[in-house]
Amino acid sequence: MRKQLLPIMVCMGMMYLAVLGGNLHAQNLHQEDWVISVAEKVIPSVVNISSTKTVMVQQSPFFSDPFFREFFGGGIPRERVQRALGSGVIVSEDGYIVTNNHVVGGADTVEVRLSDERVFIATIVGTDPKSDVAIIKIDQKGLPVITIGDSTNLRIGSFVLAVGNPFGLGQTVTMGIISALGRSGLGITDYENFIQTDAAINPGNSGGALVNMKGELIGINTAILSRSGGNVGIGFAIPINVVTSIQKSIEKYGTVVRGWLGVSVQDITPKIAEALGLPTRVGALVSEVIKDSPAEQSGIKQGDVILAIGGSVVQNTSSLRFLISELLPGSAIDVKVFRDGKERVLRVTVGDLSQAETPLHKVYIQDNRFLAGATVAEITPGSRETFQIENAIEGLIVVEVEENSEAIRTGLKPGDVILAINNRKTRTLDELQQILGTLRGMKISLSLYRHGMVMNLTIIR
């Protein structure tokens, strides 16, 4: 009986494998058709962007030698043209294009090449370095516009295509899945809420489109995680809802308007969760409340755990900063907090971050071997919240660092707090000016506050 059943079972198994193989082949063909269809739909809306910027550099490499610089100064500066290449996405038929700030920020000229090889000079409508978004415009009508999607409906595992137009070579299309959502704390931008994908985002694809299975724009490709500079399967895109919000703010106000709460916060650790009786580690612990801030006026207190902003769950400190930044100043919002073992809801009128972080005074440092090219200011309530600077920290915040400057070679970054120079405290701009006037020689010691840590640097040139 078993001998009779064996051929039947083998035959049935072969039939099953044949059907399964046919289904897999059909699925592969269907997937291939989808990729082709979406690519053909999206490619006309993705452009190549080439920007140029003039910077000042030293005339001779000899002046980088401390000996020559000690006796002859920094040398005669000369102009050098820097070029950047990237991609962009057409979002309106009358010429508005979304790209990355690092592609066009500070550029003297921006050239856009369409998929049909037409070339236009673009104007920069607005940029937002804090999110790495930029809006440019070309003077042309009837352009192929991409369909805008909704990044709030994204799911991990969904198929996506990354479309770019790098180096002017033509369009490139790569396929992958969404591997994570809400990525933050990467140090790429000040406000991070990235879509993570394994679709290859190679150099030159910055500013290009991340689209879903319908060909809808769900993100703007912005960065890769790589030690070599090449793709290793971890790329990041800015969610399109964030980009759209920034675009509307730039078009309406001429700049990006962000909300402000006025708190210093820290992530919830297992020990903190246990001590406070929290059921999970979700939320952000308020470590300090800035005086006269919206948070203080609404009744938020030190020790509160912020659980939600306007119905959106606060996962951690980065999540809180992002959610607050998306709110319009003057709007009233419900903030859910955990206090004394109970949840309560407080009504907060959101402040304006730009007013809170605008320094009353700032100084551009010149003619200094180590710090020239840095702009520093006294710490404001807004900068304390933006860069998570503790109230006990006293110093001067670095608000800007010029490219190819002495300050950038020293290692200064925007958001750094200069605590001391050569063991002399720099609490005010007057103290800084006095110290700079006494600096001599080829050595400097800096005490900096960065990302919650104090760093001590000694630089010799």
Describe this structure in words.
This protein is an alpha+beta fold and 461 residues long. It has four domains: 2-41; 42-254, Beta Barrel (Thrombin, subunit H), CATH 2.40.10; 259-354, Roll (Pdz3 Domain); 358-460, PDZ domain (Pdz3 Domain, Roll). It is 24% helix and 36% strand. The protein has helices at 2-42, 66-72, 101-104, 240-253, 270-276, 294-298, 317-325, 353-357, 381-386, 406-410, 429-436, and strands at 46-58, 77-90, 96-99, 109-113, 119-128, 133-137, 147-148, 159-164, 172-183, 194-197, 209-211, 216-224, 235-239, 259-260, 263-267, 284-289, 305-309, 312-313, 332-339, 342-349, 351-352, 362-364, 374-378, 396-401, 417-421, 424-425, 443-450, 453-460. The strands form five sheets. Strands 22, 23, 24, 25, 26, 27 and 28 form a seven-stranded antiparallel sheet that branches. A six-stranded antiparallel barrel has the order 1-2-3-6-5-4. A six-stranded antiparallel β-barrel has the order 8-9-10-13-12-11. The chain starts with a helix and ends with a strand.
